[in-house]
Amino acid sequence: MFARHDLVWLTGRGWERVREAAPLDALEALDLWQGGGWPAVVRRAEIDLPPNEVAIGFALPPRRAGDPKGGKGGKLRVGCRVDLADIGRRTRALPLVGALDAVPPQWQQGLAALEREAADAGIGLAVYGSVALEALTGQRYLTPRSDIDLLLRPLSRAQLMAGLALLARHALTLPLDGEVVFADGRAVAWKELQAAFASAPGTRVLAKGLERIALVPPDELIATLEETTTWLN
């Protein structure tokens, strides 16, 4: 089952479909992407997406001041669809440990400590967004305003609470952002979920799935962890 932020490597036919759907001003960058052997990212599906297709996207590097091609900055995003047969390989989002060498020096020590503490606690952390793209492609994505977008994938309620506490503590010194991904693939911004636990009963959070977005009570999401844990035991 595909999930948001999964990484997919395309076949030659897949790249043909990407080029057919892409705007002209993105073709040069996409050719560089294909030549580099870099992955696309799975994004939320459109309503009319057939079951044999996957929605993917590319966030091309932001244009910098002095770029001869102009532009107002920001990443050019290219979204398209490909057949399942157009995907040669797929992985989950990049583990945080795989991005440590790509971040600015002022983040490296703090992020390494976060990754080490999470690993010692058996908590899985992955990274997406600008940090992941810079690590995967070697191109410049990070700016002084960039966040560090993390994915926390807990296996139990205890891991969820420990992971939230870990992120909150390290967010005091690092620009951490990102989501908690639950057992059924739905994801919630970790800061929103943490705030909901401290709010009045009945508070709902915005849960993003591959096919839909909905406001749900946190207990509904936590129940998916408990069911998974019971099955594993």
Write the layout of secondary structure elements.
Blueprint (H helix, E strand, L loop, with lengths): L6 E4 L1 H10 L5 H10 L3 E3 L10 E7 L17 E7 L3 E5 L2 E2 L9 H16 L3 E5 H9 L10 E6 L3 H14 L5 E6 L5 E3 H8 L7 E4 L4 E4 L1 H15 L1
Parallel strand pairs: 8-9
Antiparallel strand pairs: 1-2, 1-5, 2-3, 3-4, 6-7, 7-8, 9-10, 11-12
Helix pairs in contact: 3-5
Write structural notes for this entry.
This protein has 233 residues and is an alpha+beta fold. It has helices spanning 12-21, 27-36, 105-120, 129-137, 157-170, 190-197, 218-232, and strands at residues 7-10, 40-42, 53-59, 77-83, 87-91, 94-95, 124-128, 148-153, 176-181, 187-189, 205-208, 213-216. Strands 4-3-2-1-5 form a five-stranded antiparallel sheet, with helices on one face. It has a five-stranded mixed sheet with strand order 6-7-8-9-10. Strand 11 and strand 12 (213-216) form a beta hairpin. The longest helix is centred in the middle third of the chain and has 16 residues, at 105-120.
As a percent range, the share of helical residues equals 25-40%
State Rg. Answer: 19 Å
Shape label: globular
User: Could you give the order of the helices and strands?
Assistant: EHHEEEEEHEHEHEEHEEH
Mean model confidence by pLDDT? 91
Strand content: 15-25%
Q: Looking across the biggest beta sheet, what order are the strands in? A: 4-3-2-1-5
Q: Total helix count?
A: 7
Instruction: Name the assembly state.
Output: single chain
Strand pairing plus helix content: what structural class?
alpha+beta
Count the domains: 2
Q: Count the E strands.
A: 12
Low-confidence stretches: 68-72
Distance between the termini: 23 Å
* Major beta-sheet overview: 5 strands, antiparallel
